[in-house]
Design brief:
Layout (H helix, E strand, L loop, with lengths): L3 H8 L27 E2 L4 E2 L3 H7 L9 H15 L4 H10 L4 H13 L5 H16 L3 H10 L4 H9 L3 H15 L8 H14 L4 H15 L12
């Protein structure tokens, strides 16, 4: 993934001669009710939206080149944070950029490295595991929600070492354990296992890690049964 500082240099390569495209059929601004923002297009883009202005062109002039506007939208989004191809495609669709124009722009951005779903997925896994303690299952779910292909998701989450994942689970339990002292052992077990489950850890691993942490503390675990995976 390219950082914001690299965008200005790489962005020049995505500009260049492009085929003349027909103007977008922007309708008359409409109001949805008293105090509602004026909107354009089937995506109901607010008139004051900078992307809407880029697509409409200047007052009294025909709509701007949709391909140039699409490039501007993508560059603005990428300057804020890395995005997947699917996220950018969704944004262009919401701005009423024609599908063929969006495909050309996204393809060009991919060619020059401004869009790189593989790099995005690997960086996402490392960042979210380190910062939030998320396990493979939760990380895979987040990446799929952002439109990353299954093969790319699988490769990214498998880069997370199993031993590291277990060590993170133990650290999460150790950090939460003191706040559960004085609570019934069964409730402590359920709370801690539930915390790990919400972060994507499998039931078997979660139960084992919590049980060992409670045993080290001297908690009586005789009546606690092991859940099924």
């Amino acid at each position: 993934m390219q950082g914001g500082g690299a965008l200005s240099g790489i962005a020049r390569s995505v500009h260049g001669p492009s085929p003349t495209a027909p103007p977008l059929p922007w309708p008359t601004p409409t109001r949805r009710g008293a105090g509602a923002p004026r909107t354009y297009g089937r995506g109901r883009i607010p008139v004051d939206d900078p992307d809407a202005k880029a697509l409409r062109g200047k007052r009294g002039a025909p709509p701007a080149d949709p391909e140039a506007a699409a490039r501007e939208i993508c560059l603005r989004m990428l300057s804020r944070s890395p995005r997947t191809r699917a996220q950018l495609a969704d944004a262009l669709r919401r701005k009423d950029v024609p599908d063929d124009v969006a495909e050309r722009v996204l393809g060009r951005f991919t060619d020059v490295g401004l869009i790189d779903d593989e790099a995005f997925a690997k960086a996402w896994v490392q960042s979210r595991h380190t910062g939030r303690g998320l396990a493979k299952r939760a990380l895979a779910h987040e990446l799929r929600r952002r439109g990353v292909a299954d093969d790319t998701v699988n490769d990214a989450v498998e880069s997370l070492d199993t031993d590291r994942e277990e060590a993170t689970a133990r650290a999460l339990v150790a950090r939460r354990l003191p706040s559960t002292r004085g609570v019934d052992p069964g409730k402590r077990m359920r709370r801690l296992v539930g915390m790990l489950a919400r972060k994507g850890y499998p039931p078997g691993l979660s139960y084992r890690v919590v049980k060992e942490a409670l045993a080290e503390e001297g908690t009586d675990l005789e009546d606690l049964s092991e859940p099924l995976d």
